[in-house]
# Entry
Amino acid sequence: MPNIVIIGAGSASFGPNTLATILRSPLLRGSRLGLVDLDAASLRRVKAVAEHMNSAWDAQMTITASTERADLLPGAEFVIVSIEVPPREKLWRLDWEITLKHGLRQPYGENGGPGGLMHACRQIPPFMAIVRDMEQLCPAAWLINFSNPLPRITRAVTRYSHIKTVGKCHQIAVGYALAATLLADRFGLAVPAGITLHSDPGNTGVIQQMAGLGHKHLAIKAAGLNHFTWMLDVRDKQTGEDLYPALRAAAENPPPTLEPFSLAIFRAFGLCPVPGDTHLCEYLPWAHDPQAKPWEQYHLRLYDWSGNEAFREFSHYMLDQMAGGQMSIEGMKEAISEGAVELIEAISGNLNSYQEAVNIVNRGAIPNLPDETIVEVPAVASGAGIQGLTLPPLPAPVAELCRREAALVELVVEAAVTGSREVALQALLLDPMINDIGRAQAILADYLALFAPQLPQFAAGT
# Structure
């Protein structure tokens, strides 16, 4: 049975669900499970919950825990990573506030824009430190990445290491929720009043509800870049009927609160984007103009930083209660998988399993994107690894948008790994939100000064 290590096991966003889905898997019964987290208190809490699940669900796993990953990496076959340089919300807010001081209002600031550059520059060095340890201690292991900015981190691994890696993201659920809402009348679905699919903790329930209905009735094939994917094919799950004509018709008269930016892009380019407005707006030049104020027209909201802090505190409280036995773990049997367990089952058991969305090196899966680009595509996972499906070319305008972001990713990754200020400036100047050299220079100078403790690679000042 496989040897699985989770680094960042105390993650409020991914830790509990990943833990529960691994321990409830009958195919992984008897595996070795190693838990790693730098926060000793979080680690004790998570290990206690894992032991409860292991006993109650007869998982028969051998569970170990350490704040030092080198203790658990030797012999690992799968390493799941979900890490963030703290304090996450404070840093994200500063990423946004600094550009605002220079006249640029980023619409989100997590994975694209100047904020996405800083996020990547903070995240990639500690992530690559994990990779270097894997090269020494478990060089044949698969690295399953949940950390954002996901395609930039995953590309850093493929560009600077030979460790096998795949990125997993649940954002395709938003595409299912969007399509289900647009086609609600066709399937007799109830749609919540004032529906939005914005990515914040308070909206999770609505997204899960509509995505569940979407998965019940629809089969979607999507491709592109992470948080920048596009529906290539939408079909009735029962009959196989092509529903794209119905989707296009419904997009002409949608609920007024339903992802207006995404649907404007859909109407302009003829292809429906998957990730919802909050992520889509990070990669495009049409959401930040200070005179037009498109964030007002499209109701683009910032991330709920305080809400996510509260969510983390609540998640830790629930884990505390489960660890101490005051709360039952049985509800976690219904946890929605983040996708790691399906990959581990398929690769370790040679299941030839269809995966709706994985982030892997392109190698021709999307013919009109560069081979080295990290793309999000459907794939088959088996003992032979993860093979992306060969898809039709993206429509030329959509492919061009993706190519621009793919080229930017290369510069961001180089800047994050080398600490080159010159390359970091070039990355800003290629970003679709930047239209002034002086502004880019001023933003970069402020970023590098304020975040110097989190960006040691830039200390030399080259």
User: Anything to note?
Assistant: The longest helix spans residues 113-137. The longest strand covers residues 228-236. The two ends are 48 Å apart (CA to CA). The mean pLDDT is 95.
